[in-house]
């Protein structure tokens, strides 16, 4: 038996109230972890640096010091963000509408890929046509095949059977997104079923792990050669769904343990000469005997650290780095938040806000930065690429992707809509 407390004044239709305000649980699911946007923002800055041709700063990005690089940060954080954006749609609106939303996102990513290609192809063609430079900018992106056999390559471009180098991460991301409805459907059969499916798909790209030969399933990138997609989505989905699983709650947060911190840090540091030629050369300069013991492992571990199919050593290396970053940020990212009114605290608060904004608008920033990197490279070609010139070019690039992030956020807010 229940009683209803009196409520003064006119009674409101409770169904109308429910339609006006989303459930508290749904609202809570939309809260973004600050660590997610911060680290994804860091990845966007690194990706810009990595893609500027002949960039001095690219010698100091994470890829030069271990097995994994900024691509892993981008894919892992994209999986986490997808758990927030799409996972809640599956939970609230069911599998069919959740799948429809994923397909709509794939549609956006597909046209972002096509648009990026045509913008850069036209831009590089314009530089070659109207400029008098000592290099071919069409050739710098290996696009001669496209311009000499456009009919075939145009068909391949739209069917994703022609994926030129430099334009390969968005197709990978698109295919990985398409696997999400499968994983969400398998969730009903149990989380072990989801994990088994992701590992099984990864093994199709990495059959050497179970002794089935060196060549796995891949996607063709060029109709005239046997080159495959540089990022095989069948391999990279393992990392994406690892991030997805952590944010969705399928995997528990790892404990903060001094032993685990030491273990992760030891792996990152001690594996560096085995995964980085830069560090290996430092070791060789310090002790040729130690370097002589390390050198043979490069051939032995070639498949285990391969980037295309996402080798197991890359996965282990990234998870070690991710754990260290997670511990360093503190619970809920509390150590990222500046405290106090000192100058250093205020500067960090501004930097944190800028980096986070870039992370929140990662797709727009990524597409923009890939185009921007080529133009910065062109500008540097007209200089002597001195240290200060290169630093200025990189900092201008950082400023422009920040502007891109704020501009994208402004458009997404739809300020032209009347406020109620």
Automatic annotation (TrEMBL):
Biased composition (Low complexity): 16-28
Alphabetic keyword roster: Membrane, Transmembrane, Transmembrane helix
InterPro entries for the chain: UCP028704_OpgC
Record carries keyword DNA repair: no
Region (Disordered): 1-28
Domain of life: Bacteria
Listed transmembrane segments: 38-58, 70-90, 110-131, 191-209, 229-247, 259-280, 312-329, 361-380, 392-411
UniProt entry tagged with the keyword Transmembrane helix: yes
Name of the protein in question: OpgC domain-containing protein
Organism: Leisingera daeponensis
């Amino acid at each position: 038996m229940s009683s209803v407390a009196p409520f003064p004044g006119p009674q409101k239709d409770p169904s109308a109230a429910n339609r006006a305000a989303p459930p508290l649980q749904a609202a809570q699911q939309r809260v973004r972890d600050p660590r997610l946007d911060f680290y994804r923002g860091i990845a966007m800055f690194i990706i810009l640096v990595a893609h500027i041709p002949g960039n001095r700063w690219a010698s100091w990005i994470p890829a030069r010091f271990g097995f994994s690089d900024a691509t892993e940060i981008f894919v892992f954080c994209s999986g986490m963000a997808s758990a927030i954006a799409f996972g809640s749609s599956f939970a609230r609106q069911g599998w069919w509408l959740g799948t429809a939303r994923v397909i709509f996102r794939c549609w956006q990513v597909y046209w972002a890929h096509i648009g990026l290609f045509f913008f850069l192809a036209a831009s590089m063609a314009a530089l070659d046509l109207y400029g008098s430079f000592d290099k071919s900018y069409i050739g710098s992106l290996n696009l001669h095949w496209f311009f000499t056999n456009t009919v075939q390559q145009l068909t391949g471009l739209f069917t994703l059977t022609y994926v030129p180098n430099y334009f390969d991460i968005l197709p990978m991301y698109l295919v990985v997104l398409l696997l999400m409805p499968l994983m969400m459907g398998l969730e009903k059969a149990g989380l072990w079923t989801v994990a088994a499916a992701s590992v099984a798909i990864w093994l199709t790209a990495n059959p050497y792990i179970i002794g089935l030969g060196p060549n796995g399933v891949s996607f063709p990138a060029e109709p005239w050669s046997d080159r495959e997609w540089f990022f095989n989505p069948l391999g990279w989905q393992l990392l994406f769904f690892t991030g997805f699983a952590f944010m969705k709650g399928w995997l528990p947060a790892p404990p903060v343990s001094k032993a685990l911190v030491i273990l992760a840090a030891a792996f990152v540091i001690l594996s560096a000469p085995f995964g980085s030629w830069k560090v290996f050369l430092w070791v060789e300069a310090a002790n040729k005997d130690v370097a002589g013991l390390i050198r043979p492992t490069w051939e032995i571990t070639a498949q285990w650290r391969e980037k295309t199919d996402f080798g197991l050593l890359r996965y282990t290396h990234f998870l070690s780095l991710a754990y260290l970053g997670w511990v360093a940020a503190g619970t809920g990212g509390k150590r990222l938040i500046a405290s106090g009114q000192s100058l250093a605290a205020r500067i960090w608060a501004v930097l944190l806000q800028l980096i986070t904004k870039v992370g929140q608008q990662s797709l727009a920033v990524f597409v923009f930065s890939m185009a921007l990197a080529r133009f910065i490279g062109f500008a540097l070609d007209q200089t002597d690429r001195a240290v200060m010139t290169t630093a200025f070019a990189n900092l201008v690039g950082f400023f422009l992707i920040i502007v891109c992030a704020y501009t994208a956020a402004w458009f997404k807010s739809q300020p032209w809509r009347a406020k109620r």
